[in-house]
Amino acid sequence: MAHVAVTAIGADRPGIVARVSGVLVDHGGNLEDSAMTILGGHFAIMLVVEVPDGQDVGQLESVLAAEVAPLGLTVAVRPVSEPDPGGGEVADGSETGRSWSVSVHGADRPGIVHRVTRLLAGHQANIVDLSTRKVGAGDGSAYVLLLDVSLAPGTDADELGRELAGLAADLGVDVHLRPDDADVF
Amino acid sequence: MIRPVLRLPHPVLARPCEEVNDIDETARSLARDLLDTMRSSAHSVGIAAPQLGVSLRAFCLDVSGHRKARSCHGEIVLFNPVLVASPGRDREREVGREGCMSVPDLTGDVARAASVVVRGVGLDGEERELDCDAFEARAVQHELDHLEGLLFLDRVVSPERIFSRRVYR
After folding, report:
1. How do residues A156-177 score in pLDDT, each as one tens digit?
2. B45–A128 C-beta distance less than 8 A
3. Rounded to whole angstroms, how far apart are CA atoms B116 and B141?
4. Using an 8 Å Cβ cutoff, are A44 and A37 in contact?
């Protein structure tokens, strides 16, 4: 089986997911992984879909585009490589990275996401989830940035925390770094 | 005896369990299997009977030595456990990230009561009542959910707070 990435965005309204998934099911597709949310009033869809070998990706995109055009959606279908089933796991079962959460909040200003992620990239930290929220409008508006990151083996979390604190002081925001190890029952 | 742990979507994990009528040799054997299987996984601090394919109200847990534990009753085996209402003290809830041997690929953020009192029957057939807080309270609530056919997936605080788990062995 092959995999395709399906992205779609458009003004939010009822029925979008049913339409998009209907076309995919009709083409023998299986939704392997999905994220859908509302971004600034637009409904955004990101999917990785398993499709039968030989599926014409261009044809699937055309059918999907025609189906969702009445809803005002912009769609794209692109081939992607096979997802890594091990999720980054290495052969001996040792951990490839530790899961941490970073939260940033403060007065809204340009560059918060860029400065924080640039610092994380400098430590080879891998961002696995990121979301932002703007609270309020105008001069008093606040910005919240939440990240889940996988720290590279050997990362000095205390040092990373100190650098984030320094950046936070520079940006006039609060930053918190905490481990997110799950407990297994 | 160490037994295989059932995984999602096995139907036994999704249905409420039956009461244990007698603490007889069958029940004690189940308890030994629960303990052996829990001990065999370095990451596990608790396991419930349905995870072994036995749809009976029984679980074991042990949070000894865990860094997040406050209350610690050591090795616990409970049959027919129930939460005891304790008005005015169970309101505080804490969010923590949980994983489950029956859901090997995912973790999720779950809000649980910060403290609970659980009552059940021990291996000796006597009724026990345990006052648990922090990590032990979370473990108790996770195992009690299994007896109702619920997984942590049914309790995550919001759909975006489910995560792919990297490695557990």
Report:
1. 999 999 999 999 999 999 999 9
2. no
3. 8
4. yes
Tell the CATH topology of A2-80. Alpha-Beta Plaits (3.30.70)
Nearest CB to B166: which of A37, A88, A131? A88
- Which among B45, B163, B166 is the nearest to A185, CB-wise? B45
Kindly report the CATH number assigned to the domain that includes residue B15: 3.90.45.10
Question: Is the distance from CB of B37 to CB of B47 less than 8 angstroms?
Answer: yes
Cβ of B166 and A87 within 8 Å? yes
Task: Find chain B residues with C-beta within 8 A of A37's C-beta.
Answer: 160
Residue B2 resides in a domain: no
* Window from A96-100, B41-45, B82-86, B93-97 with minimum mean pLDDT: A96-100
A107 min Cα distance to partner chain B (Å): 24
Q: Which ipTM value was assigned to this complex?
A: 0.79
Is this structure's pTM higher than 0.90? no
Alpha carbons B63 and B44: distance in angstroms, whole number: 9
**Residue for token digits 């809803």?**
A71
- CA quadruple B20, B25, B28, B30: dihedral positive or negative? negative
SS3 B70: coil
Cβ neighbors of A5 (< 8 A, separation 6 or more) are A46, A47, A48, A49, A76, A77, A78, A79, A80
Contact assessment for residue A64 and residue A55, using Cβ atoms and an 8 Å cutoff: no
- Per the annotation, the verdict on B143 as an active-site residue is yes
CATH class for domain A98-179?
Answer: alpha beta
Q: What whole-number distance in Å separates Cα of residue B127 and Cα of residue B82?
A: 11
**Mind telling me how many Å the CA of A168 is from chain B's nearest CA?**
25
DSSP letter string over A150-163?
Answer: EEPTT--HHHHHHH
Q: Is the peptide bond before B9 cis (omega within 30 degrees of 0)?
A: yes
How many domains does chain B divide into? 1
**B contact set with A (CB within 8 A):** 41, 43-47, 61, 66, 68, 96-101, 105, 107, 135, 138-139, 142-143, 152, 160, 163-169
